[in-house]
């Protein structure tokens, strides 16, 4: 439900804040006061096309914001969640700005969005019936949705949409697989060549680190041997040289001779003895390590060639060297998939045929439901039209096959609302034959019938009372009030019979000061509303009899 509309610097509106409640709200005022400007502003807020001409003269930009209560609209809440536009509260704010150069920006809940997103949201929240520029009733998609909602075809429609999506997914998989099967031989040969290269390489887990370590050892073998020989000689020496170990042992012998003089030397002697033992063990380990070292040019050359091959294949396939074994497994999987591609394609083709068959069964059931519903809804709308000032008019809903029997998410039908304004005339599309006022009354005739099944919570009627009066105007007013008992309705009217039926009454004023024209709004109640109803009855001045008649009209609602 629309709870608030804020307008700034739009056309002749400087600043306006309008709070709205449930039920029927009428907007009245002198001709040219700016009632339709509010409809234009509301349409702009939910995605209508914008031009620089809507910006109030002398201002940099126009801004319109509409606040909707979505607490009872799970479909809207779900849509906002899918778009990552949800809020913590149960309100949704649609906002639009238009700059002096004609550029516009759209926002939902304070976040910038593409204009199409704002339009999609608007389709869930608001229906505007009146001038052709805003008329949702002329859109084929809306006509189909009205028919399906009235017929309770939601389950069938969901089934058809699900089957359609599965068909599309299967067709994409078939197209992808067909392309691969078509180039199967050449692609398979290339994959097998790459797999054979990696298979011949036979890189084991951890092998690369081991090869790197061995390559470093072999390439520095001579240096390792030389340093080890020098270290071994320095530690343990030989018959001709005095070594570190010899020096340490000489020191130990002398320390043994004096330790009896001071027992504090015992710990020092023990430490030096341990050092001597470690030196002996180190010298032994060095001899063994030195004996294990060898220079092997052939082994070194093989390792370097293998490392070169590993890095070359890694660069070729653009993967880290350690991922080459995983790449081999991936290639083997692709080869297996290609080799079984034809059989997979056959399975997919069989699945596609089953889905198409199920889709056509569901679409046929949906078409039958639509044809039954079309006759029933058209009959009821025609009856309502007679009462709403379109005597002799006839409403016809055409349900015909799509020109191309290609599956769609909504079935195989195109739905078109047509109307014959006069007896004997052929029915034509509503957007082609009906005037703005007639379109509004047709929409009213439809909405009063589909009020329980329709999903859009807020309806706006402009020009609904054009060309009618007397008893017909009273019937239109009562129909709007009845609709307002179930949905939120906003109606612009010139007729007192319609205005008197409203739950809420707003009056639009236009004033001119210093060559500047401004529009403003006032919520009417009590005697102020009585005087406005009396003014709408006509005459140059408001008489006591007009006021009495106005009070009587309001008292009988």
Characterize this entry briefly.
The chain is an alpha/beta fold. It has 19 helices and 15 strands.
Features:
single chain, alpha/beta, six-stranded antiparallel β-sheet, 19 helices, elongated
Fold and architecture overview:
The structure is a single chain. The chain has 557 residues and is an alpha/beta fold. The strands form three sheets. Strands 2-1-4-5-6-7 form a six-stranded antiparallel β-sheet, covered by helices on one side. Among the domains are: 1-134 and 437-447 and 456-524, 3-Layer(aba) Sandwich (Rossmann fold); 187-339, no CATH class. The chain is built from 19 helices and 15 strands. Strand 14 (504-513) and strand 15 form a beta hairpin.
Q: What is the residue-mean pLDDT, rounded to a whole number?
A: 85
C-alpha termini separation: 24 Å
Provide a count of the helices: 19
CATH superfamily of the domain at 1-134 and 437-447 and 456-524: P-loop containing nucleotide triphosphate hydrolases
Radius of gyration: 44 Å
| Molecular shape | elongated
Q: How would the blueprint of this fold be written?
A:
Layout: E1 2-10, E2 13-19, E3 24-28, H1 35-45, E4 61-69, H2 74-82, E5 91-99, E6 104-108, E7 111-113, H3 115-125, E8 126-129, H4 140-151, H5 154-182, H6 184-201, H7 207-219, H8 221-236, H9 244-258, H10 265-292, H11 297-317, H12 324-339, H13 341-387, E9 394-401, E10 413-420, E11 428-429, H14 430-433, H15 436-450, E12 458-461, H16 470-484, E13 488-492, H17 496-499, E14 504-513, E15 516-524, H18 526-536, H19 544-555
Parallel strand pairs: 3-13, 3-14, 8-12, 12-13
Antiparallel strand pairs: 1-2, 1-4, 4-5, 5-6, 6-7, 9-10, 10-11, 14-15
């Amino acid at each position: 439900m629309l709870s608030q509309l804020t307008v700034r610097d739009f056309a002749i509106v400087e600043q306006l804040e309008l709070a709205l409640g449930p039920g029927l709200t009428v907007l009245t005022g002198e001709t040219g006061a700016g009632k339709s400007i509010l409809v234009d502003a509301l349409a702009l807020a939910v995605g209508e096309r914008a031009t620089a001409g809507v910006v109030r003269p002398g201002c940099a930009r126009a801004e319109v914001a509409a606040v909707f209560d979505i607490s009872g609209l799970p479909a809207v809440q779900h849509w906002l969640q899918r778009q990552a536009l949800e809020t913590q509260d149960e309100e949704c704010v649609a906002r639009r700005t238009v700059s002096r150069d004609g550029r516009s920006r759209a926002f939902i809940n304070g976040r910038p969005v593409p204009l199409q997103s704002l339009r999609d949201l608007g389709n869930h929240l608001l229906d505007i019936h009146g001038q052709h520029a805003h008329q949702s009733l002329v859109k084929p998609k809306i006509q189909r949705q009205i028919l399906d909602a009235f017929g309770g075809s939601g389950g069938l429609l969901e089934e058809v949409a699900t089957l359609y999506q599965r068909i599309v997914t299967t067709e994409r998989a078939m197209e992808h697989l067909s392309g691969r099967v078509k180039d199967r031989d050449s692609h398979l040969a290339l994959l097998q060549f790459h797999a054979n290269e990696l298979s011949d390489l036979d890189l084991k887990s951890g092998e690369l680190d081991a090869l790197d370590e061995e390559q470093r050892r072999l390439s520095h073998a001579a240096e390792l041997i030389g340093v080890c020989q020098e270290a071994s000689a320095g530690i343990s020496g030989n018959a001709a040289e005095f070594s570190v170990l010899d020096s340490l042992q000489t020191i130990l012998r002398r320390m043994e001779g004096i330790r009896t003089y001071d027992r504090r030397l015992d710990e020092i002697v023990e430490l030096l003895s341990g050092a001597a033992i470690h030196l002996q063990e180190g010298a032994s380990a060095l001899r063994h390590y030195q004996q294990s070292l060898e220079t092997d040019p052939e082994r070194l050359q093989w390792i370097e060639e293998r490392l070169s091959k590993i890095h070359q294949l890694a660069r070729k396939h653009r993967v880290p060297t350690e991922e080459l074994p995983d790449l081999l497994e991936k290639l083997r999987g692709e080869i297996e998939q290609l080799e079984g591609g034809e059989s997979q394609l056959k399975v997919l083709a069989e699945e596609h045929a089953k889905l198409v068959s199920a889709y056509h069964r569901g679409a046929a059931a949906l078409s039958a439901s639509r044809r039954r519903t079309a006759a029933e809804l058209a009959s009821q709308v025609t009856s309502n039209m007679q009462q709403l000032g379109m005597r002799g008019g006839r409403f016809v809903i055409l349900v015909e096959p799509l020109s191309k029997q290609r599956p769609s998410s909504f079935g195989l039908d195109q739905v078109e609302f047509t109307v014959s304004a006069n007896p004997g005339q052929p029915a034509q599309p509503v957007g082609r034959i009906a005037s703005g006022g007639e379109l509004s009354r047709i929409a009213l005739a439809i909405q009063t019938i589909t009020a329980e099944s329709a999903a859009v919570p807020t309806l706006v009627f402009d020009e609904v009372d054009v060309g009618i009066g007397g008893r017909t105007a009273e019937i239109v007013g009562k129909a709007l009030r009845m609709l307002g008992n179930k949905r939120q309705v906003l109606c612009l009217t010139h007729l007192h019979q319609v205005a008197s039926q409203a739950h809420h009454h707003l009056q639009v004023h236009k004033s001119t000061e210093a060559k500047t024209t401004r529009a403003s709004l006032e919520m009417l109640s009590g005697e102020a509303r009585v005087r406005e109803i009396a003014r709408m009855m006509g005459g140059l001045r408001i008489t006591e009899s007009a006021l009495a008649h106005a009070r009587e009209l309001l008292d009988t609602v």
